[in-house]
Automatic annotation (TrEMBL):
One MF term in the entry's GO annotations: succinyl-CoA:3-oxo-acid CoA-transferase activity
Record keywords: Transferase
Name of the protein: 3-oxoacid CoA-transferase, A subunit
Recorded superkingdom: Bacteria
Claim: Transferase is one of the keywords in the record: yes
Basic and acidic residues: compositionally biased ranges: 226-236
InterPro entries registered for this protein in UniProt: 3-oxoacid_CoA-transf_A (IPR012792), CoA_trans_fam_I (IPR004165), CoA_transf_BS (IPR004163), NagB/RpiA_transferase-like (IPR037171)
Transferase is among the record's keywords: yes
SUPFAM superfamilies xrefs: NagB/RpiA/CoA transferase-like
Gene3D superfamilies in the record: Glutaconate Coenzyme A-transferase
Amino acid sequence: MTTRYDSAAEALDGTLRDGMTIAVGGFGLCGIPSDLIEAVRDSGVTGLTVVSNNMGVDGKGLGLLLENNQVAKVLSSYVGENKLFAQQYLDGVLDVEFVPQGTLAERLRAGGAGIPGFYTATGVGTPVAEGKQTQIFDGVEYVLERGIVADLALVHAYRADAWGNLVYRMAARNFNPLVATAGRVTVVEAEIVQEEPLDPDTIVSPGVFVDRLVLARERVKDIEQRTVRPREDAQRADAPVTGDDAAHVAP
């Protein structure tokens, strides 16, 4: 049975320690467990290994843990949105294991499914394969990748029920379902927590994977790079509606 807590700090109480491995859902700033990340920051734990597609941006998301010098190693696919992440890597302060995005997803899926490793052609002949076992299958070389099982998994969901069943909203689904399965302990923040059971046909992450649950605080959902331009064909709000356009305006 999933246990519900009143705050992110309470939900993480007793789960954090120096040097642990934490898997974190999200993609950039989309679908990240912001409350839980901030609670990890506030706890002061150090020497963390973080498994995440990337490390947020400067000053937001997992970037907060970098700024607080809490991260020793990162398993990630992308560093380009976070200048501090890139600088710490180039300065040799941060140990980074680059993992192709599909491989990272599969390593998390494998860890959650109890699969210790799998072979993939991705990365063969590149630095990604250095130090790893390779094998020939049907004349093609593959590299062995290990499944990831984290000490702690942090997840953001859109809706949860009292049993810890989860659904996600649109692109915020990203890595969250995989991360939810890959933690020895999984802690979830959800935007909506309902007492009645979710419709079984809508559930993405079954509650059996969820240990702790907290209601997420309302907050502005950040976008890494907001790029907009005027639509040339857009009707100005203050312009009169005439001609053919009038036929498309509801009474």
